[in-house]
């Protein structure tokens, strides 16, 4: 590496800290606002230092909710978001890994057609089929249900492609050794292929969990009952009322709570996250 | 305990490519059979057909008196050692060996005894809890062996099991495998492209080329009487010198029925440097081109006057017209020197023009 | 590309692909097909009769000035977001690629916003730049700017571009950093020996070698701006003031919400579908080229 002389190095550190500040500032403001008194904020006199209402605000947010129109504890919204995110992440991994297994390890009529049918879904994100999908979910009586929240988002061409790619790199001899050792297709899948896919599954899980937790348009459409709201939908409803009535400390506390799980996952499982992100984009 | 019999076994791929063109081999109970040949000759395919990993498109494979063509690999009572070992990377050494036994529903106590015994024999007892990636190449190879022997199968199948090891370890393991097989007395089929490995291991040697068997037999018998020019040049290193007899120089030296032969082969070690022409033998004038001294012996590379007379049995071996002579010790002629080499009559190998028939004079 | 070692089974593979196939057919293909069919139908005002009208819905759609504006706006947003986010992320990545102390810490501190959901991004930024209570608005007003994104359409658009670009910094940073780390360091050393100063080294060596990553990210960012800005827009401006922040996706959503013309909504979906197909096509062609690069 070409060594930079001292001054350039300081410039680099300086620019990076500016970047970090820009990235962190909105979140800092949110955290500060969530510890302050609503009246002060509404007057436009919010302090840039933490206030003294931390416990009070978070208690109300998690267990009570806003006093306005949507009185739904954010704790419950988080639970809904968690169920949806887990269902999407686990469901996608489960159905993708078995379909990839079938496509790679078996020859059967229509194998390639099925592969293409799955592959083409890459070009049909939920945004381009909002209302017809809504109608089907309504016809299946899945509005306001966890099934309705997660099932339509569960198919994933990306995950199927990723597992297919990975299976192709598994040496053929492992399957042959398993066959000689008396393992049938299901046993080979369970005893050998699944354990070997662990890292891939974990990396994919991290990405899919974040994507699931952050879903917005779909839950917005199909949840009408307040107790089925996800946190992303809930936060939007909190600022629906006219500005004067918005309870900003609670909104900001909700924003912080909405960020917490996915940010935690990114920071703690950074290696898996980076791997998952890079691999799913290939 | 079982014999393995291949009766007119064929393999044709869907594209029409004939990988195995009718092979007949009989391996008696407890024998060690080695399939040897250049890459692409079909030896691995044949082994995998015995294992049940490739389908058989013609003929019969018989293990212990039972035709196994339609039987699953797991039910053929065979065990296989793969070239890349195919150890389960996520399982410990113990579980790698135990897996096949568990799948067969064996009691855990019996599994434990068998694995412990195999580990003792293979000196793996201290590493049973390790994962394959924590082992050296030689240790992995032994785990692959262990996985095969705990099963106590009727037949061991080896697919180039030593080719991923370095030269020194390969020789050591070769001896190990042979000792182990003698002790267990289990019928074995072993695939290799290394003729030295083949010679040292085999009770029965099967030389294959182009999907066909060139010759079957005892390794020394094959060395002494190769049936075709292919076998002649493949078995033995450096390879046998094969020359056309057509120039009067050689033909006139051979008398009687030997004149029918169009190709004569002489192994490098059967030449002596001498000015005398042995009766019925062959003497050739050579110009020394290169000398290789390897200690106990010396290889002399010489060229004949008639440049185009050498027969190339395998392409890329030696340029035509070049002759290798192997002499003991380090005393050798100088480069550029003109010498005469001679071989006695019993050391000559005579073949028909197409190289497919050996002619006994 | 096919495996040589496989299992033989007649029914098992179908059982294994069945769950995914069922979901894909029910929730992807059937609705998409419905959208295509709907886009050729016209329903009367009471929803009593339906007639086949060929491309009338599409013609209507393209005649509608609001739709045309939304198309232009969507593309403008996409490029503005992509370019601003990419350039800032590239600057940070080039800095973080230097052998600095604590470079892992920098990476961690710069990648986490990836995990922030679009609606939360909208809430965070509108709060900071809210005309009456935003902490930044105070300073803007003190500086004499007539700042009110809730009334001024251009300011609202600027705010959306800014916040959407902010969210995308971490993603772009990560890929730029990976791209930079994949360039062999000896290339820089050779350039330095050839007498190129640092700035020149960047433009003549780093930038060209990074161009595959840049193109790749450009496509990804445009797709992102097409779809994922929905959450930001919906929490921040609801498309307003007026229609000054209505993008194509937002229009499909809000037109449908008003219970309006089903045929038009379907036609909009189909147009979006075609755009996605084109974008995905470009992406794949590009990815293929990246492989051979």
Task: Please explain how this structure is put together.
- The complex is a heterotrimer of chains A (282), B (361) and C (293).
- With 282 residues, chain A is mainly α.
- Chain A has one domain (74-278): MetI-like (MetI-like fold).
- Chain A contains 15 helices and no strands.
- The radius of gyration of chain A is 24 Å and the shape is globular.
- Chain B has 361 residues and is an alpha+beta fold.
- Chain B has two domains: 4-229, Rossmann fold, CATH 3.40.50; 238-359, OB fold (Dihydrolipoamide Acetyltransferase, E2P) (Beta Barrel).
- Chain B has nine helices and 19 strands.
- In chain B, a hairpin with a 2-residue loop joins strand 9 (204-209) and strand 10 (212-217).
- In chain B, 41% of the residues are buried.
- The model of chain B has no long low-confidence stretch (mean pLDDT 88).
- Chain C has a domain at 55-119 and 163-288: Orthogonal Bundle (MetI-like fold).
- Chain C contains twelve helices and two strands.
- Chain C has helices at 12-38, 56-63, 65-96, 103-111, 118-128, 135-142, 153-181, 185-193, 198-227, 229-236, 248-257, 262-292; strands at residues 41-43, 50-52.
- In chain C, helix 1 packs across helix 12 (262-292), helix 8 (185-193) packs antiparallel against helix 9 and helix 11 (248-257) packs antiparallel against helix 12 (262-292).
- The mean pLDDT of chain C is 84.
- Chains in contact: A-B, A-C.
- Chains A and C meet through helix 1, helix 4, helix 5, helix 6 and helix 8 of A and helix 1, helix 3, helix 4, helix 5 and helix 6 of C.
Sequence-ordered SSE layout with sheet pairings:
The complex is a heterotrimer of chains A (282), B (361) and C (293).
Chain A: H1 6-33, H2 38-42, H3 54-63, H4 74-105, H5 111-120, H6 130-139, H7 146-150, H8 157-169, H9 172-180, H10 185-196, H11 198-213, H12 217-222, H13 231-238, H14 248-268, H15 270-280
Helix pairs in contact in A: 1-14, 3-14, 4-8, 4-11, 11-14, 11-15, 13-14, 14-15
Chain B: E1 4-12, E2 18-27, E3 32-36, H1 43-51, E4 58-63, E5 66-67, E6 78-81, H2 93-103, H3 108-121, H4 137-149, E7 155-159, H5 167-184, E8 187-192, H6 195-201, E9 204-209, E10 212-217, H7 219-224, H8 229-234, E11 241-244, H9 248-251, E12 263-266, E13 272-273, E14 282-293, E15 297-303, E16 322-328, E17 338-343, E18 349-351, E19 358-359
Helix pairs in contact in B: 2-3, 2-4
Chain C: H1 12-38, E1 41-43, E2 50-52, H2 56-63, H3 65-96, H4 103-111, H5 118-128, H6 135-142, H7 153-181, H8 185-193, H9 198-227, H10 229-236, H11 248-257, H12 262-292
Antiparallel strand pairs in C: 1-2
Helix pairs in contact in C: 1-12, 2-12, 3-7, 3-9, 5-7, 5-10, 7-9, 8-9, 9-12, 11-12
């Amino acid at each position: 590496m070409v060594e930079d002389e001292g001054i350039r190095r300081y410039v680099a550190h300086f620019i990076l800290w500016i970047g970090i500040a820009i990235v962190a500032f909105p979140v800092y403001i949110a955290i500060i606002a969530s510890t302050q008194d609503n009246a002060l904020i509404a007057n436009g006199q919010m302090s840039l230092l933490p206030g003294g209402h931390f416990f009070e605000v978070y208690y109300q947010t998690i267990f009570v909710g806003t006093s306005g129109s949507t009185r739904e504890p954010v704790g419950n919204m988080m639970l809904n978001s968690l169920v949806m995110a887990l269902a999407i992440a686990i469901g996608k991994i489960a159905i993708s890994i078995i379909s990839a297994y079938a496509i790679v390890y078996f020859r059967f009529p229509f194998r390639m057609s099925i592969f293409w049918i799955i592959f083409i879904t890459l070009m049909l994100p939920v945004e381009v089929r909002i209302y017809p999908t809504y109608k089907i979910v309504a016809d299946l009586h899945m509005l306001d249900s966890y099934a309705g929240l997660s099932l339509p988002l569960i198919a994933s061409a990306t995950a199927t492609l990723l597992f297919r790619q990975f299976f192709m790199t598994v040496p053929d001899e492992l399957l042959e050794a398993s066959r000689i050792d008396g393992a049938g297709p299901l046993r080979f899948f369970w005893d050998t292929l699944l354990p070997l896919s662990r890292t891939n599954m974990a990396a994919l899980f991290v990405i899919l969990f974040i994507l699931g937790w952050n879903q917005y348009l779909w839950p917005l459409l199909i949840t009408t009952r307040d107790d089925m709201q996800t946190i992303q939908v809930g936060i939007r409803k909190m600022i629906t009322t006219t500005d004067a009535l918005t309870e900003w400390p609670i909104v900001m506390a909700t924003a912080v709570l909405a960020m917490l799980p996915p940010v935690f996952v990114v920071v703690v499982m950074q290696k898996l996250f980076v791997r998952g992100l890079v691999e799913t984009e290939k | 305990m079982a014999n393995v019999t291949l009766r007119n076994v064929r393999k044709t791929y869907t594209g029409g490519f004939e990988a195995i063109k009718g092979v007949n081999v009989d391996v008696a109970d407890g024998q060690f059979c080695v399939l040897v040949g250049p890459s692409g000759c079909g030896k691995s395919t044949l082994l995998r057909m015995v294992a049940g990993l490739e389908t058989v498109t013609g003929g019969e494979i018989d293990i212990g008196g039972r035709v196994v063509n339609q039987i699953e690999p797991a039910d053929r009572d065979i065990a296989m050692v793969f070239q890349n070992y195919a150890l389960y990377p996520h399982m410990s050494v113990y579980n790698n060996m135990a897996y096949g036994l568990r799948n067969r529903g064996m009691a855990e106590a019996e599994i434990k005894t068998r694995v412990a015994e195999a580990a003792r024999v293979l000196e793996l007892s201290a590493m049973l809890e390790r994962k394959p990636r924590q082992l050296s190449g030689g240790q992995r190879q032994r785990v692959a062996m262990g996985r095969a022997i705990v099963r106590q199968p009727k037949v061991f199948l080896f697919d180039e099991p030593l080719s991923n090891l370095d030269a020194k370890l390969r020789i050591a393991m070769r001896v190990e495998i042979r000792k182990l097989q003698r002790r267990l007395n289990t019928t074995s089929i072993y695939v290799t492209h290394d003729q030295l490995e083949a010679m040292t291991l085999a009770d029965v040697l099967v030389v294959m080329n182009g999907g066909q068997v060139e010759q079957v037999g005892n390794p020394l018998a094959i060395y002494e009487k190769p049936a075709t020019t292919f076998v002649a040049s493949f078995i033995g290193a450096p390879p046998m010198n094969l020359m056309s007899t057509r120039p009067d120089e050689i033909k006139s030296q051979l008398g009687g029925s030997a004149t029918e032969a169009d190709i004569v082969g002489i192994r490098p070690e059967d030449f002596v440097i001498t000015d005398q022409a042995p009766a019925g033998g062959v003497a050739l004038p050579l110009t020394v081109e290169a000398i290789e001294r390897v200690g106990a012996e010396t290889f002399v590379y010489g060229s004949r006057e008639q440049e185009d007379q050498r027969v190339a049995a395998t392409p890329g071996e030696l340029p035509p017209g070049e002759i290798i002579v192997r002499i003991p010790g380090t005393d050798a002629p100088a480069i550029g020197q003109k010498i005469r080499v001679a071989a006695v009559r019993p050391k000559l190998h005579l073949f028909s023009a197409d190289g497919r028939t050996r002619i006994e004079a | 590309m096919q495996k040589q070692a496989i299992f033989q089974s007649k029914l098992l593979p179908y059982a294994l692909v069945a769950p995914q196939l069922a979901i894909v057919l029910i929730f992807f293909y059937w609705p998409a097909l419905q959208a295509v069919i709907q886009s050729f139908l016209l329903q009367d005002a009471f929803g009593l009769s339906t007639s086949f009208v060929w491309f009338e819905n599409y013609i209507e759609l393209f005649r509608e000035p609001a739709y045309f504006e939304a198309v232009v706006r969507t593309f403008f947003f996409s490029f503005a977001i992509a370019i601003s986010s990419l350039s800032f992320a590239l600057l940070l990545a080039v800095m973080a690629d230097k052998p600095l102390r604590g470079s892992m810490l920098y990476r961690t501190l710069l990648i986490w916003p990836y995990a922030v959901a679009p609606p939360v991004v909208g809430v965070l930024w509108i709060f900071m730049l809210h005309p009456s209570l935003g902490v930044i608005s105070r300073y803007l007003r003190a500086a004499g700017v007539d700042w009110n994104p809730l009334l001024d359409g251009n300011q609202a658009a600027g705010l959306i571009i800014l916040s959407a670009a902010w969210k995308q910094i971490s993603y772009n940073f990560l890929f730029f950093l990976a791209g930079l780390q994949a360039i062999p360091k000896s290339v820089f050393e050779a350039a330095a020996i050839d007498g190129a100063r640092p700035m020149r080294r960047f433009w003549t060596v780093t930038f060209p070698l990074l161009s595959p990553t840049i193109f790749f990210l450009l496509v990804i960012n445009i797709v992102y701006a097409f779809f994922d800005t929905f959450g930001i827009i919906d929490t921040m401006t609801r498309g307003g003031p007026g229609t000054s922040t209505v993008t194509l996706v937002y229009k499909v959503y809000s037109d449908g919400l008003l219970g309006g013309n089903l045929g038009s909504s379907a036609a909009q979906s189909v147009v979006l579908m075609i755009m996605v197909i084109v974008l995905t096509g470009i992406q794949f062609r590009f990815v293929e080229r990246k492989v051979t690069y």
